[in-house]
Amino acid sequence: MLRKLVAAGALLAASATATLAEEVKIGFVTTLTTPAAVIGRDMLDAAKLAVKHMGGKMAGLDVKLIVEDDGFRPDIGRQKTLKLATRDKVRFLTGYIWSHVLMASRKPALDSGAFLISANAGPAPLAGKLCHENFFSTSWQNDQVPMALGEVLNRKGIKSLYVIVPNYTAGKNIMAGVLRTFRGEVKGRDLTKWGKDAQLDFSAELAKAAASGAEALFAFYPGKAGGAFLKQFNQSGLAKKMKLFTVFTVDAISLPKFSKGGIDVRGHRSTMFWSQDLDNPVNRRFVADFRKEYGRDPSFYAAQAYDAINLIRAGVEGAKGDLTNTAAIRAAMLKADFGSVRGAFRYGRNHFPVQDFYLREVVEGQNGKWTFKVVEKIYDDHQDPYAAQCALK
Amino acid sequence: MDATLIASQLVNGLQLGLLLFLVAAGLTLTLGVLDYVNLAHGAFYMLGAFFSASLLELTGDWPLSVLLALPLLGLTGLITERLVARPLYGKSHLAQVLASFGLLLVIGALAMLIWGAEGRAIALPHALRGQARLFGVVLPVYRLVIIAAALAVAALLYVLLHHSRFGVRVRAAAANPRVAQALGIDTHRLHAMLFALGAMLAGLAGALIAPITEASLAMGAQVIIIAFVIIVIGGIGSLRGAFVAALLAGLIDTFGRAFLDTLLARVLPLEAAETAAPALSAMSIYILMALVLIARPRGLFPPPARGGAA
Questions:
Q1: Are A107 and A370 spatial neighbours (Cβ–Cβ below 8 Å)?
Q2: B222 contacts in A (CB within 8 Å)?
Q3: A95 shares a domain with A48
Q4: A243 part of a folded domain
Q5: Same domain flag for A35 and A130
Q6: Are B5 and A260 within 8 A, CB to CB?
Q7: Label partner for A355 (CA 20 to 30 A): which of A164, B57, B88, B302?
Q8: CA distance A198 to chain B (A)
């Protein structure tokens, strides 16, 4: 609340001093309340850093970031999107952590003629049948990260797997993603209660996993449930019997908390399209300045938000600042040559990135702080499985 | 299904049930004796977790942090009793629900300002992080610690209420507050102490679960509904009822999660079974409540009828 007021005050002050000259208005819809607010903060900080890096200007026009909180709810996300598109008349809408919020906001955003750029969520319908010429992603399609993990399991020669995921759309998608590529036997799977009163005690499921005799355990627990799951996995002593693999569970946001909470995740492996140690000039600058500005490591959410603002800049510059020239903006964005923190990639016909995926491991960095290190590349130029269903060329 | 799996699930269910008992005990006392509906009871559970997290950061000693959290929780209980609950004793339940729900929101917002949205993870001492082997079953040591601590507190509570002067007064005030007052029992003080005791019990449960699940803003709202279900099943005002019902709830929940999907998979396709199982096991405790209310509308162990409390 307080942060919102401060932000609102800052915006007010900014709009009071702004001249009548044209500006690039970017609507940023993310989560700033509920425990998930830590993700929203990371993305917003990265977006602000991106704007700062371009001196607050795109093709000579002032950049104005209008931030809205979706409260982790699709109905509110939709309402905020509608407000940004109609009242603020923003040309670009970005942010969007959650698949269900993005799905609810899709229509009001695209109907207004604005560009919709997901900086996290990658629901299957938007990659397939519902793909749209003005929709872009700077992250991934939901299936891709778990597909890469399934491939990791194959390469490690793992023959049997137990799966524990939350019982909601993304949980099921991610389980399906792993099983799409994993070639071994699935010894058992558990779907746990999710939502407002999500289950945080996994003792029953872990005991079942132990009794199943599977070689490895796969889990997906974003947010605070991840800490609870990993802690109980460690306490159960299962680590001696089976290897644990996760996606979207251990990230730069949760890592300091794990380290403080005595949850040893050193050696933990997961897949991702980006890592803070990827060696390219854009990423080096992004990571160094993010650390300097905010005193912490950026997460992949931050990387995606940073890219989203730079993608918008590429579009605006491609149209030479003419914001009415939709075709020129789109064509410039499609080139994907804005200098991504992930290195070179290209856009598929559904405007999702066709990109590399890596296996990352948690290691102890210098000064003893835990950090991520890329172990190996899993996929080159990987495209999501839904692109074929997209009618765009 | 092998015996070790069943045994380890039994321990899991027992541990969950005992924690739920700690929360439900305070609730059943305030509702049964004080006739006060306290929706903010879940906030004490959350505060217990956050207090112990902050105290751990200060002292670096986990058992000490839990012990030190208790007087703080008692104090919080005393303050809320004086400011919010006391003016509403004897008033309509709706007024109490509104006030205590408001208090729940206020405490939640304060906690967000103080501790932030992200919650706190709590590091256990190394000795408590490992596993123990009991009758051939490997169990996390910390789960056994929770069971032992909760059982000890339950025993203390029993002695306090049934074999102490304080207990006699509480039972007297519950049976007939006016007569108790006429006999020279300071019911104001008694109510305040009972309220503080309830806050400490709920907070202790929160402090004990936090090393497993982390301290988080949402935890209070999650536990309060199930705590109400438990005291309704057990009989409002009955500590024994709360104990039995909490253990039942813990065991049903754990066994539902553990075995329901395999059982359902025998009659349903796998996809349907594994989607239905978590929903069904989450529902099972409510089904139990409905069944108990049909057979015994006042719960399993209804306390003796109140006289003249009105």
A1: no
A2: 196-197
A3: yes
A4: yes
A5: yes
A6: no
A7: A164
A8: 8
Query: What total number of domains does chain A contain?
Result: 2
How many structural domains is chain B composed of? 1
Is the CB of residue B134 less than 8 Å away from at least one CB of chain A? no
* B213: nearest CB among A189, A193, A200: A200
Nearest CA in chain A to B2: A211
Chain B residues touching A255 at Cβ < 8 A: none
List, as ranges, residues 5-64 from B with C-beta within 8 Å of A.
Answer: 5, 8-9, 12, 15-16
DSSP symbols for B146-198: HHHHHHHHHHHHHHHHHSSHHHHHHHHHHH-HHHHHHTT--HHHHHHHHHHHH
* In a shared domain, residues A158 and A239: yes
Tell me whether residue A180 is in a domain: yes
User: Computed from CA positions of residues A332, A333, A338, A342, in that sequence, does the dihedral angle turn out positive or negative?
Assistant: negative
Q: How far apart are CA A160 and CA B52, in angstroms?
A: 40
In a domain, A118, yes or no: yes
Kindly state whether residues A29 and A136 are assigned to the same domain.
yes
- Inter-chain CB proximity B130 and A189 less than 8 Å: no
Residues A290 and A214 in one domain: no
Contact B140 A190 (CB under 8 A): no
Angle at A72 between CA A71 and CA A75, to 5 degrees: 80
| Last residue of one domain, picked from the residues A228, A260, A292 | A260
- B1 in a domain, yes or no? no
- Own/partner contacts of A250-254, CB < 8 Å, gap of 24 or more, are A250/A226, A250/A362, A251/A299, A251/A300, A251/A301, A252/A42, A252/A276, A252/A296, A252/A297, A252/A298, A252/A299, A252/A300, A252/A302, A252/A372, A253/A38, A253/A39, A253/A42, A253/A299, A253/A301, A253/B118, A254/A226, A254/A227
Same domain flag for A19 and A67: yes
A284-321 confidence digits (pLDDT tens)? 999 999 999 999 999 999 999 999 999 999 999 999 99
Does any domain span residue B86? yes
Contact check, Cβ <8 Å, B5/A224: no
Q: Quick count: other Cβ atoms within 10 Å of Cβ A386?
A: 23
Give residue B290's Cα distance to chain centre. 20
Pairing, β A216-219 against β A243-246: parallel
B124 vs A contacts (CB less than 8 Å) = 262
In this prediction, residue B1 has a pLDDT band, given cuts at 50, 70 and 90, of: low
Residue with tokens 């070689």: A215
Residues of chain A short of pLDDT 70, as ranges, are 1-21, 196
Round to whole Å and give the CA distance between B8 and A384: 41
CA distance B261 to chain A (A): 8
| Residue B164 in domain | yes
- For residue A201, give the nearest of B213, B277, B279 by CB distance: B213
Contact B257 A232 (CB under 8 A): no
Closest CA to A259 of A217, A305, A292, A297: A297
A interface mutation test: which of B257, B261, B264, B271 has the most A CBs within 10 A? Answer: B257
Range of the domain at B158: 10-216
Residues 190-219 of B with CB under 8 A from A: 211-214, 216-218
**Are A114 and A171 members of one domain?**
no
Q: What percent of chain B has a predicted confidence (pLDDT) above 70?
A: 98
Q: Are residues A167 and A220 in the same domain?
A: yes
- For residue A223, which of A202, A199, A198, A249 has the smallest C-alpha distance? A249
Structural domain including A246 reads: 144-260
**pLDDT on residue B220:** 87
* ipTM reported for the complex, 2 dp: 0.77
Q: Is residue A23 part of a domain?
A: yes
B62 within domain boundaries: yes
